[in-house]
Design goal:
This protein folds into 2 domains: 270 residues, 3-Layer(aba) Sandwich (Rossmann fold); 97 residues. The protein is 64% helix and 7% strand. It has a 4-stranded parallel sheet, with helices on both faces. Helix 3 crosses helix 4, helix 4 packs parallel to helix 6 and helix 5 packs across helix 6. It is elongated, with a radius of gyration of 37 Å. The mean pLDDT is 84.
Length: 381
């Protein structure tokens, strides 16, 4: 097992389209390390995801082992953390974060796998804290519809199952819950109390608030919608969101936790009926089609950028070639001038060394002295 292991891990957990990317970037301003294999900006998140490719691959493997995916209605049971699973987690963290000591882990798939992450990090001896990011579930559902063609009801239920799972799995862990809307309204006011309580080694950190202000853009909230869900599902989602909002203020709220536990029982009882009424196969096909379309758009953007880069490079090459040509012309002109000067110098030396020049110089000596005397005797004017 890799000995290169972090001491502390802060896990940012939130359903897809909940604002976890923005929150993760802001949390890094308190000195937590982002992944070194970050997947960068992609369609739907042009400012960056701040996700590790190795962590994504690990979570995809965990979901495949459970015969689940991020967009279905299955919440897998925690996987037993065998030596092989622990080794895989250890190798993943080493790949993603190298020798970093205090790391920031983020991948929305973790909301379906929170129990496994809790057990695996505990097995590795990594101190773990969780920052749960919630967002108005109707906005999440609308965003999933636009990005992945997932019907609103299915998107809302995905949000509900994910937040119920993550909240319960982290209830006994060091954690905090923050609302995406609060972060947009006052990012430092929303996150600084959490960082002070939850993040390691923040005593001497000076947060770059200017960078934070530049990072936060209210325009990131692309979808603000009204209730468009069925009555029953709308009631569940509303109750869950209200309880989670209460936990953002008081994470130990007994009433909020009790309401969430009751919701879990109701959703579990209605689970088979709900799954049979949702277009899961169609949703999967739509998701795959949306993914292919998105990849084509990404490729088109990358190709356009590559063409633009090539054109700029060609223009620079042409400019350099013109400069080289001008330099060569200047060199030829200088060489011509040098040869002319050498020729004139040689002819002058030949004249000065000739017998006729020496004789003329001697004969002209009295004349030169006379001119000198005349110039001295002339009165000043």
């Amino acid at each position: 097992m890799s000995s290169q292991r972090p001491t502390n891990a802060v896990v940012v957990a939130g359903m897809h389209r909940s604002g976890t990317s923005l929150v993760t970037r802001l949390c890094s301003l308190w000195g937590l390390e982002l992944p070194q294999d970050d997947i960068g900006a992609r369609r739907g998140n042009e400012r960056g995801h701040w996700e590790s490719l190795a962590v994504i691959e690990l979570n995809e493997w965990l979901l495949r082992e459970a015969k689940a995916s991020w967009f279905d209605m299955v919440i897998p049971d925690p996987m037993p953390v065998s030596d092989a699973v622990a080794q895989r987690f250890s190798d993943t963290l080493a790949t993603a974060f190298g020798p970093a000591d205090n790391i920031l882990v983020k991948d929305p798939r973790i909301t379906k796998l929170t129990g496994t992450w809790v057990d695996a990090l505990a097995e590795l001896g990594v101190e773990q804290s969780y920052l749960l990011v919630v967002r108005n579930p109707l906005e999440v559902a609308e965003s999933l519809l636009v990005r992945d063609s997932i019907p609103r009801e299915q998107g809302a239920l995905l949000w509900l199952l994910s937040v119920l799972n993550t909240e319960l799995a982290t209830r006994e862990q060091s954690r905090a819950i923050v609302d995406f809307g609060d972060v947009l309204a006052d990012w430092f006011g929303a996150l600084n109390p959490i960082a002070t309580r939850l993040f390691p080694d923040t005593e001497h950190v000076v947060v770059d608030r200017t960078l934070g202000e530049q990072t936060v853009d209210p325009g990131l909230r692309h979808h603000v919608v009204d209730d468009q869900l069925t009555a029953e599902l709308g009631d569940w989602v509303d109750r869950a969101y209200r309880a989670l909002r209460e936990l953002t203020v008081d994470d130990g709220s007994i009433a909020a936790c009790k309401d969430l536990d009751e919701l879990r029982r109701e959703v579990a009882a209605a689970g088979p009926l709900l799954r049979s009424s949702l277009p899961t196969v169609e949703g999967e096909l739509r998701h795959e089609l949306a993914g292919l379309r998105g990849q084509l758009r990404d490729d088109a953007v990358a190709l356009e950028k590559s063409v633009a880069d090539t054109e700029r490079a060609d223009a620079k090459v042409a400019e350099l070639e013109a400069q080289i040509l001008e330099h060569r012309r200047a060199e030829r002109s200088w060489e011509t001038t040098r040869l002319m000067l050498e020729d004139r110098s040689a002819r002058l030396e030949a004249v000065e060394s000739s017998r006729s020049w020496r004789l003329a110089w001697t004969l002209l000596a009295p004349y030169r002295r006379l001119r000198m005397l005349r110039s001295r005797s002339l009165p000043d004017r």
